[in-house]
Specification:
Blueprint (H helix, E strand, L loop, with lengths): L13 H9 L15 E5 L2 H10 L2 H11 L7 E5 L2 H11 L3 E5 L7 H11 L4 E6 L17 E6 L5 H17 L9 E5 L3 H23 L5 H9 L3 E4 L8 H6 L5 E4 L11 E4 L6 H12 L5 H9 L5 E3 H14 L3 H8 L9 E3 H18 L2 E2 L10 E4 L5 H15 L9 E4 L3 E4 L1 H10 L12 H9 L5 H13 L4 E7 L15 E4 L6 H17 L4 H8 L10 E7 L3 E3 L2 E3 L2 E6 L15 E6 L3 H4 L5 E3 L12 H6 L4 E6 L15 E5 L1 H5 L8 E4 L4 E4 L7 E2 L3 H4 L6 H16 L3 E10 L2 E14 L19 E5 L1 E3 L2 E11 L9 H17 L4 E6 L21 E7 L13 H8 L3 E4 L2 H6 L2 H6 L2 E4 L3 E15 L4 E6 L15
Parallel strand pairs: 1-2, 1-3, 3-4, 4-5, 6-7, 6-8, 8-9, 12-13, 13-15, 14-30, 33-34, 34-35, 35-36
Antiparallel strand pairs: 10-11, 15-18, 16-17, 16-18, 19-20, 20-24, 21-22, 21-29, 22-23, 24-25, 26-27, 26-28, 29-30, 31-39, 32-36, 33-38, 37-38, 38-39
Helix pairs in contact: 1-8, 4-5, 6-7, 7-10, 11-14, 13-14, 17-19, 18-19
């Protein structure tokens, strides 16, 4: 996947590295890349001035590559002496050294030997303005590290020479894609005329590349066109029959010569030049020999307009095949060649060829990241605006898109698997936005979120992108989500999950201007969240720096269906290949999936959801049917049209509403997802065909198998974990077909790596004195012993939607004070920390608890709440290696919390208490068993507050 134009030490763009890794044709010989990236030029100051000032060499190279819509240009370093040249070649392992208009004092051959001694893969070319220099030196080019001499005529000659040297190396290392790439053999004795022909042929080939790339949206396709371009080979003496010429004899080639005997060496088209030959004649010949430059759609239409219904062998080999080779569609050529086996005069249905062409075009779009095109937008499901990076979420989504294009999805009968239509604003768009609006990141560290948001909403998006964004808005009438995709987001060790904003918009106004304005506001709001308090506090808790961060933005159609004035998917899900707390005979490596009706906010922010194991979907993780009924999902999130959006009230959930679960039944989807609880016999019955409380256990799918959801997710997790080399988390959403319970559209939304349990070192938890124990937990995360002196504790039975905000504010105030004092603390309270449902836990965000060292969750009264697995909040707990404990009802009842309070100084009272123990306390967690103990400390000598004592 192509992510931008940043380069490594040799100047290789990410596009180049992608092609090198994914295309066998992209590497040619030991140490050689498919294009020259690093060039050293040995010249006098005078020649350098001419090349840069008069001839604008760097500018001409930039213009040449940009005209072909390529995001890389060879890097040039000038040196003034042979010693400097040798050092520069060795320092960067240069691809090419050009010696301009001078003969090294040691002699050219000796100098070439020194270059080879420090870098055996560096090519060497000698360019001169003096024809006399050619008389006593080698008269040709070969594929050894010495190339030259070549006559230089200033202007933009060096770009042509670079192309010639690349082509020569290519042919010397590899004959190219199974003999399909065109080769232009230039066999000219006269050096003056040879130079002019090389230049003319180079321009003709480059024009061919430009015309092809003008119709291609993906940078990967444009790079592939560049790699597969027709190649030049200079053979000064037609009598040369070296290894290259012999290898080329069986290939259709294009020859340009000033002699009569070239036809004995090569086949194909021949053009003979003379002293009166015009450059335009050579260009016309080359263009005719290479073939037309149209896209696959044009060929498909031409075939459809063919009067007959069949395509015979002569028509294919004389017209269609050369057309495809000229357009570098080599995979399609190989596929169609199998339809015409040698020795037969087959006549093939043109419909078969049309389907092959159409399928090739579809597959290309699925596998590549297309640049946004207003012309092709309706046909693309993933494209990007800008040349920068996609960011974490963008990379994950691009990988999922590629993955599903390579698997046989037909095996999952009834499931239509895809990604939503998506456009990514690459990271360079963010850079441009910051620059044109003079937004200095250093200004935001002491500014509150509201003021930062106000500044960003009042800024202008770059004019270069607003036209494309407006086109997107005019083409999409369904709801839109604007999601962050920062460079640091979704990294394995520090996922930044849920740290930045995502904005959902109903996109329901009949006025295009309003919809466009709302989308622009959403983009700028996500940009502003880069500098909000929760982002900055999270960065402070990692080893990342604020200037490491840049923001890409995903603009995506929201998965869902209309239900009156609401819009939501039938259900959303989060699947993980590793389960921290497996149940019922399942292992951690069997994975886990959480499902909930409506938008995924319910799951990722810790609300009610249904959990199952994809390898054992019929196994229930809850207790009795009655417990399943009591813990079932009671509400869901949806988008609602008609909500007015004001700039001064713009927020992350500006058009999102929480709806009672009964609405899903009136909308007609409950029967496909729920069971009904029977009080009479304490049983659950799949479906809603009887009276009784509805239980969102997804039994019609998991128990009755209406769609192969579990089988697909199980396979997807296995493939993704193998690809990333680490456990993975995948978000998805599903639209059920209301007319057919056996059909559904499944959309993949996000992929990120996750941490499995850390490598466990020995922790002694059995020999801790019972007299010091305050509480024991059987479900923990982390490993080692943590010493602290401070506790922030929320009283039991305090969960209430009305009290949530005051609790969060008080916790945030205490956190700020403790962070400033450098005092890590234990956060202890009822329910699931960070939950979006205030009846399940306290909805803190990371900036509210940024100084926490260990988090502990107690039951809510007599209800045990499932651990925080599944939320963005939990992802960050595990990645930052915080200690984490959750207590069951029985464990909480056995705990002596009053002892902790009595041993403390109570610094604040009320619903949120701040306790401080002068002698401190320990939390010891054994990662191998998952057990943890909170116990008072008797001997703290030599211990470091807040740190690991063991493990």
């Amino acid at each position: 996947m192509v992510e931008g134009d940043h380069t490594d030490h040799k100047g290789h763009s990410e596009a180049a590295r992608l092609s090198e890794g994914s295309d066998p044709e992209a590497q040619h010989g030991s140490g050689w890349y498919w294009s020259l990236r690093s060039i050293v030029v040995l010249s006098t100051d005078y020649d350098r001035m001419i090349m840069e000032e008069e001839d604008s060499l760097t500018s001409s190279l930039n213009l040449r590559y940009s005209s072909a819509e390529l995001d890389f240009t060879p890097l040039i370093e000038y040196v003034g002496s042979e010693e400097e040249a040798i050092k520069a070649v060795e320092a960067v392992n240069a691809d090419l050294l050009i010696v301009v208009n001078r003969i090294p004092e040691m002699g050219f051959e000796a100098f070439a030997g020194m270059v080879r001694s420090v870098s055996g893969s560096t090519a060497l070319a000698y360019l001169t303005r003096d024809i006399g220099d050619l008389c006593n030196d080698r008269n040709g080019l070969d594929v050894s590290p010495f190339l030259g001499p070549i006559l230089i005529k200033r202007d933009s000659t060096i770009p042509h020479i670079i192309q010639l040297i690349e082509d020569t190396i290519f042919l010397g290392s590899d004959l190219g894609d199974e003999g399909l790439s065109r080769i232009v053999i230039i066999s000219i004795k006269d050096p003056h005329r040879r130079h002019l022909v090389v230049r003319t042929v180079s321009d003709a080939i480059w024009g061919h590349i430009c015309r092809l790339n003008a119709s291609r949206s993906s940078m990967v396709d444009k790079v592939r066109t560049f790699i597969r371009r027709p190649r030049m080979l200079v053979v000064p003496e037609p009598s040369i029959t070296g290894g290259i010429i012999k290898a080329l004899m069986d290939r259709a080639s294009i020859s340009i010569t000033d002699t009569e005997d070239v036809s004995d060496q090569t086949g194909g088209s021949i053009f003979r030049v003379s002293s009166g030959t015009e450059g335009s004649e050579i260009i016309e010949f080359i263009e005719g020999a290479i073939g037309p430059t149209h896209d696959l759609k044009s060929l498909e239409m031409a075939l459809r307009n063919l009067p007959q219904d069949t395509v015979n062998r002569p028509l294919y080999y004389e017209m269609i095949r050369p057309w495809l080779i000229g357009s570098t569609e080599f995979e399609l050529v190989r596929k169609l060649d199998t339809l015409y086996p040698d020795g037969r005069s087959d006549v093939i249905s043109k419909g078969l060829i049309i389907e092959a062409i159409s399928g090739s075009a579809r597959l290309s779009r699925k596998r590549t990241i297309m640049e946004f095109s207003r012309e092709f937008f309706d046909r693309e499901d993933f494209s990007k605006i800008g040349s920068g990076q996609l960011g974490g979420k963008g990379r994950g989504l691009a990988f999922l898109k590629k993955l599903i294009s390579e698997i046989d999805t037909d095996r999952y009968e009834g499931l239509n698997i895809r990604v939503p239509r998506t456009v990514v604003l690459a990271s360079d768009v963010f850079d441009l936005f910051m620059r044109i609006n003079k937004l200095d990141p250093d200004r935001f560290s002491d500014m509150d979120d509201a003021r930062i948001t106000e500044m960003f909403l009042g800024s202008d998006l770059p004019n270069t992108i607003t036209g494309d964004i407006r086109h997107f808005t005019g083409s999409v009438r369904s709801p839109i989500v604007v999601r962050s995709s920062s460079l640091l987001e979704d990294a394995l060790m520090k996922p930044f999950a849920g740290i930045y904003a995502s904005v959902m918009l109903s996109n329901s106004s009949i006025e295009l201007d309003k919809r466009f304005m709302h989308l622009c506001m959403g983009i700028k709001y996500v940009y502003s969240s880069t500098f909000h308090a929760r982002a900055l506090s999270y960065i402070d808790s990692t080893d990342s720096r604020g200037n490491d961060e840049k923001m890409a933005v995903i603009i995506q159609e929201v998965v869902g269906q209309k239900h009156g004035d609401l819009y939501y998917p039938s259900f959303s899900g989060v699947a993980r290949s590793f389960d921290y707390w497996p149940y019922g005979g399942c292992s951690s490596k069997d994975g886990t999936v959480h499902l909930a009706v409506g938008l995924g906010k319910m799951i990722v922010e810790g609300g009610s959801s249904h959990k199952f194991c994809p390898k054992h979907p019929r196994s229930r993780f809850t207790g009795s049917p009655r417990e399943s009924m009591e813990m079932s999902q009671r509400c869901f999130y949806a988008l609602k049209k008609g909500i007015t959006v004001k700039s001064n009230e713009f927020s992350e959930d500006v058009q999102m509403v929480k709806v009672d679960i009964s609405t899903a039944e009136s909308d007609g989807i409950m029967d496909l997802l729920a069971s009904t609880y029977s009080y009479e016999n304490d049983r659950l019955y799949p479906g809603t065909g009887r009276d009784g409380p509805r239980v969102m256990d997804f039994a019609p799918i998991l128990q009755m198998g209406t769609i192969p959801l579990a089988a697909f997710l199980d396979d997807l997790l296995t493939w993704s974990e193998a690809a990333l080399g680490t456990p993975v988390e995948i978000e998805f959403a599903v639209n059920l077909d209301p007319d057919d319970p056996n059909k559904a559209d499944l959309y993949l939304l996000q992929l990120r790596g996750m941490r499995s349990r850390d490598t466990i070192s020995s922790v002694d938890i059995e020999n801790i004195a019972e007299s010091s124990v305050v509480a024991r937990s059987g479900r923990t995360l982390g490993n080692g012993a943590f010493l602290m002196k401070d506790v922030v504790m929320v009283k039991d039975n305090i969960l209430d939607a009305r009290t949530a905000d005051p609790l969060v504010q008080e916790i945030g105030r205490l956190n700020t004070s403790l962070v400033r004092g450098g005092r890590p603390y234990l956060l202890l309270g009822p329910g699931r920390w960070g939950s979006c449902d205030p009846w399940l836990g306290i909805p803190v965000s990371w900036d509210d608890i940024s100084g926490v060292r260990v988090i502990a969750e107690r039951p809510v009264g007599d209800r045990s709440i499932d651990p925080s697995q599944g939320s963005h909040f939990f992802q960050n707990i595990s990645s930052l290696k915080l200690g984490y404990l959750t207590f069951s009802v029985s464990e909480d009842a056995a705990a002596d919390w009053t002892r902790l309070v009595k041993a403390s100084d109570i610094l604040t009272r009320g619903d949120v208490q701040h306790l401080r123990l002068d002698r401190g306390f320990n939390i010891t967690i054994d990662g191998s068993s998952g057990k943890g103990i909170i116990h008072l400390s008797d001997d703290l000598d030599g211990q470091t507050e807040g740190g690991h004592l063991r493990g």
